[in-house]
Amino acid sequence: MELIVNYILLFVSGAACVYCFVLAKRLKRLNDTRDGIGASIVEMSASLSQTQRTLRLAREASVEGIDKLTTLIEDAEKKVPEITELLDALDALGTITAEDIENAKTRALIAIDRRADSVIDIAAALDSTARTTRKRPSSRTAA
User: What is the pTM of this model?
Assistant: First the structure.
């Protein structure tokens, strides 16, 4: 009986050795840095490093952008009163210009009316002279 138990133990330990050998081969292939999980881990590690570098660069760029935008916003806020003042001045200038144009138009119309009256007076005088000249006999026709 002891001999049977020894053979069974020998058989089981041999099977365990073969099983361990097969597992060792599988584990070796799994950890291979070319094809297995090791390669995936190496790729993921490289990708993680690249992502961290990109994130760091993006943070630096965003900090620079924020600083520039902050400066520009502060400058713009400082310029708002000046721009408002300029817009008010332009509005007032536009109003004054419109009034000046209206006044100039009125003066021009008055001047045109006066000249038209003068032209009408001159035309009337010429007409009157022409009528008077027609009524008098000419000294040339009598001779």
Answer: 0.41
Query: What are the Cα distances from residue 22, in Å, to 18, 19, 27, 29?
Result: 6, 5, 9, 11
| Counted domains in the chain | 1
Q: Is residue 23 part of a domain?
A: no
Query: 92 in a domain, yes or no?
Result: yes
As a whole number, mean pLDDT of residues 116-127 equals: 89
Angle at 68 between CA 65 and CA 73, to 5 degrees: 120
| Residue 35 three-state SS | coil
| Mean pLDDT, rounded, of the chain | 88
Q: CA 32, CA 48: separation in Å to the nearest integer?
A: 20
Could you tell me how far CA 9 lies from the centroid of its own chain? 82
Give pLDDT tens digits for 107-116.
Answer: 999 999 999 9
For residue 22, being part of any structural domain is answered with no
CA distances 34 to 20, 31, 38, 40, 41, Å, are 23, 9, 7, 9, 10
Domain that holds residue 96: 31-133
- 50 in any annotated domain: yes
Q: Which residue has the tokens 């943070």?
A: 59
CA distances from 77 to 84, 91, 128 (A): 11, 21, 76
